[in-house]
């Protein structure tokens, strides 16, 4: 059986699956649901709690109504059961009016919101029958129902295309389900408990193979390029910077300098809070590399961040006598050819870019140092692919990874066991802590009044739009952010200039929107979490985060870090009902304390971001499927496999699987 044998998968949808990285039945079966809709037990209107997802069996009260505002449409309808009434609305789904008016009783699933004293649902799904429904990552051109149906067909060949990957003795010892059984439970669970058992199996395997890969990388670390230590080089670097470094920055660069002069290739992670000055430390390491006659490459997760790094670094390195260039995807052909020539010839001693740096046609002259920024956005495969691009046969490049997501040390040692750890635990002097407030819906107008005062005083603000349930075409989030921006521009912020940016926005438009905001041409930037990293506008003093309870604390802390970057007082408003998690965030600006709370309350998956967990980057298992206890259990399992002689057969089997998975991923992350 192949993908083309599945009902409903024609040429166009096959191309859509291929574009999403699904090229075989195995890929399809390992594209796990990102979450589940538990429609197995409907609740009443009285039982439904704002901020929580719920399934409700309701009767329609009155006709569904359709209203239009330019290109936007909205369907509204009122429902009720014996305990109360509830409204629901659907944005840009005009067909819902006919669907709702064709019946009187419906099963709705969605997140309950407070609307004053009432409750409402926004873009809820209509469930045909009760049960646990998998929800997959949106793939343009492949509706959710088709994705689910195709996956169920593929399950018939589960044993054939997905043979068991773990030794039976290990499955028995840790109580893990066999692969085929777990696949069926993951994609077609009979209950929430069954789905959880499947999740545990694949999360444990994913983290175990990650631990195996980490151990093999650590044990196989070879000699690095020798960068002759130059007395006073670090001090000279800091004197060339326009600010005085903190003690933590000085200490970290000294640790890096010692590594660069060592016999083995450096593999070090620099961890620091938002605004702690990690990029400056990386620039110091890159300068030490360039002075020794080697190239340095910095890889950022987005084109926006890569361009910002390039603009910030180019003048500095050119002043030191070293050329600096940029390589990103989508460059004009002639410009890309010129960039590749400069990299291959060594004309560019410092190179900044995105994943394009590990494209197949990129050849480095003498790559001595690889730097990856925002490490939680990359997995083992990406940083391994960059390392393999360099070296001269006898050496492998030094590796420096930077993480702005504070991680408790115990977790960092498990996730990044192949890396030495440096922590920048100081912020530059003069930074005022951001005042964080939880704002209920009833105080929204007062908050807008405060915002207008800040804007009138010449300040700027971000508004981060709420996350929404993914719809069949994957455009729900885009519709929500556009509607919110228009509502603000026509309503409470009609006297101010409102801009818009979002993840799927064309790169040029995104760069222009952020440039206009940085230049002050835009006063309020309405955005999705695309602004989470790499946006530096010191004049921005207000951050408003809608539906803040839907985000992990670490992500909220990252978003909050976009303000408070100037000398003035800044504010972060969390639009949500108060809860313990949000109170913890409001009580501290210390990212490491925030991370500790997030780890306790939501687990390592939420701490590091969906699909960005170091282990999850291996197979694509959503990190929310695991918790800290399971992560440490997998780490202890790997420790026993590598230290107990009697477990050598299990160790060899796990190591083989880890190598295969790394090889597959290294092929995928290289852009053809």
Number of helices: 24
Q: What's the β-strand tally?
A: 21
Which runs of at least 5 residues are low in confidence (pLDDT < 50)?
468-474, 605-626
- Overall pLDDT: 84
Residue share in helix: 40-55%
Describe the structure.
The protein has 672 residues and is an alpha/beta fold. Among the domains are: 41-127, OB fold (Dihydrolipoamide Acetyltransferase, E2P); 219-424, P-loop containing nucleotide triphosphate hydrolases (Rossmann fold), CATH 3.40.50.300; 435-588, P-loop containing nucleotide triphosphate hydrolases (Rossmann fold, 3-Layer(aba) Sandwich). It contains 24 helices and 21 strands. Strand 2 (53-69) and strand 3 (72-81) form a beta hairpin. The longest helix has 28 residues, at 192-219. The chain starts with 10 loop residues before the first helix and ends with a helix.
Name the features.
672 residues, alpha/beta, OB fold (Dihydrolipoamide Acetyltransferase, E2P), Rossmann fold, seven-stranded parallel beta sheet, six-stranded parallel beta sheet, 24 helices, 21 strands, 41% helix, globular
Question: What's the short version?
Answer:
With 672 residues, this protein is α/β, with parallel strands linked by helices. Helix 7 (179-187) packs across helix 8, helix 10 (247-260) packs parallel to helix 11 (278-291) and helix 14 packs across helix 24. The chain is globular.
Helices and strands, with pairings:
Elements: H1 11-19, H2 25-29, E1 35-38, E2 53-69, E3 72-81, E4 84-91, H3 96-101, E5 105-115, E6 118-122, E7 125-127, E8 132-135, H4 144-154, H5 158-161, H6 168-174, H7 179-187, H8 192-219, H9 233-240, H10 247-260, E9 267-272, H11 278-291, E10 295-299, H12 303-319, E11 324-327, H13 333-345, E12 350-353, E13 367-372, H14 380-388, E14 398-403, H15 409-415, E15 420-424, E16 435-439, H16 444-456, E17 460-464, H17 476-490, E18 498-501, H18 507-519, E19 524-527, E20 540-545, H19 553-560, E21 571-575, H20 580-587, H21 591-608, H22 616-619, H23 628-643, H24 648-669
Parallel strand pairs: 4-6, 9-14, 9-15, 10-12, 10-13, 11-12, 13-14, 16-21, 17-19, 17-20, 18-19, 20-21
Antiparallel strand pairs: 1-8, 2-3, 2-5, 3-4, 5-6, 5-7
Helix pairs in contact: 7-8, 8-23, 8-24, 10-11, 14-24, 19-21
């Amino acid at each position: 059986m192949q993908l083309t044998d599945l009902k409903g998968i024609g040429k166009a949808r096959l191309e859509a699956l291929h574009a999403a990285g699904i090229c075989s039945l195995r890929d399809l079966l390992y594209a796990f649901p990102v979450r589940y809709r538990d429609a197995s037990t409907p609740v009443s209107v009285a039982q439904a709690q704002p901020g929580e997802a719920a399934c409700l069996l309701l009767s329609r009260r009155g006709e569904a109504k359709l209203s239009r505002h330019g290109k936007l449409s909205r369907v509204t309808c009122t429902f009720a059961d014996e305990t109360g009434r509830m409204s629901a609305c659907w944005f840009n789904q005009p067909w819902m009016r006919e669907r709702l008016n064709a019946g009187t009783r419906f099963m709705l699933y969605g997140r309950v919101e407070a609307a004053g004293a009432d409750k409402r649902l926004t873009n809820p799904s209509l469930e045909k029958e009760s049960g646990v429904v998998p929800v997959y990552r949106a793939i343009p051109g492949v509706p959710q129902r088709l994705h689910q149906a195709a996956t169920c067909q593929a399950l018939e060949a589960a044993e054939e295309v997905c043979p068991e990957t773990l030794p039976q003795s290990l499955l028995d010892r840790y109580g893990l389900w066999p692969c085929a059984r777990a696949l069926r439970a993951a994609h077609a669970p009979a209950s929430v408990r069954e789905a959880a058992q499947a999740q545990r199996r694949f999360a444990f395997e994913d983290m175990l193979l990650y631990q195996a890969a980490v151990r093999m990388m650590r044990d196989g670390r070879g000699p690095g390029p020798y960068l002759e230590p130059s007395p006073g080089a670090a001090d000279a670097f800091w004197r060339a910077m326009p600010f005085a470094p903190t003690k933590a920055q000085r200490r970290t660069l000294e640790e890096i300098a010692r590594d660069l002069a060592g016999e083995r290739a450096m593999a070090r992670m620099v961890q620091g809070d938002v605004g702690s000055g990690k990029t400056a430390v990386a620039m110091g390491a890159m300068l030490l590399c360039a002075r020794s006659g080697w190239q340095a490459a910095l890889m950022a997760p987005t084109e926006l961040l890569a361009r910002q790094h390039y603009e910030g670094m180019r003048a500095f390195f050119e002043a030191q006598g070293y050329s600096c260039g940029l390589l990103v995807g989508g460059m004009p052909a002639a410009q890309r050819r010129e960039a590749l020539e400069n990299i291959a010839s060594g004309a560019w001693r410092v190179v900044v870019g995105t994943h394009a740096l590990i494209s197949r046609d990129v050849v480095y002259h003498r790559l001595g140092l690889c730097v990856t920024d925002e490490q939680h956005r990359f997995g083992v495969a990406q940083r391994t692919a960059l390392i393999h691009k360099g070296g001269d046969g006898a050496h492998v490049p030094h590796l420096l990874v930077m993480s702005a997501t504070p991680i408790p040390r115990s977790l960092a040692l498990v996730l990044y066991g192949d890396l030495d750890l440096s922590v920048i635990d100081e912020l530059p002097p003069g930074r005022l802590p951001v005042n964080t407030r939880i704002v209920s819906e009833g105080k929204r107008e007062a908050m807008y009044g405060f915002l207008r005062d800040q804007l009138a005083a010449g300040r700027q603000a971000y508004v981060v739009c709420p996350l929404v349930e993914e719809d069949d075409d994957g455009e729900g989030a885009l519709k929500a952010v556009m509607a919110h921006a228009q509502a603000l521009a026509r309503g409470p912020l009609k006297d101010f200039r409102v801009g818009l940016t979002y993840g799927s926005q064309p790169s040029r438009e995104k760069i222009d929107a952020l440039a206009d905001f940085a230049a002050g041409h835009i006063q309020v930037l309405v955005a999705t979490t695309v602004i989470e990293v790499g946006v530096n506008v010191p004049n921005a003093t207000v951050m408003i985060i809608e539906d803040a309870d839907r985000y992990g604390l670490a992500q909220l802390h990252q978003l909050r870090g976009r303000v408070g970057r100037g000398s003035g007082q800044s504010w972060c408003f969390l639009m949500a009902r108060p809860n313990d998690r949000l109170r913890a965030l409001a009580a501290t600006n210390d990212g490491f304390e925030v991370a500790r709370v997030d780890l306790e309350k939501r687990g390592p998956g939420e701490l590091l971001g969906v699909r960005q967990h170091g282990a999850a980057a291996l197979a694509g298992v959503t990190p929310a499927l695991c918790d800290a206890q399971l992560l440490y259990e997998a780490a202890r399992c790997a420790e026993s496999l590598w230290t107990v002689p009697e477990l050598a057969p299990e160790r060899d089997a796990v190591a083989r699987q880890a190598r295969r998975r790394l090889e597959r991923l290294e092929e995928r992350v290289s852009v053809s």
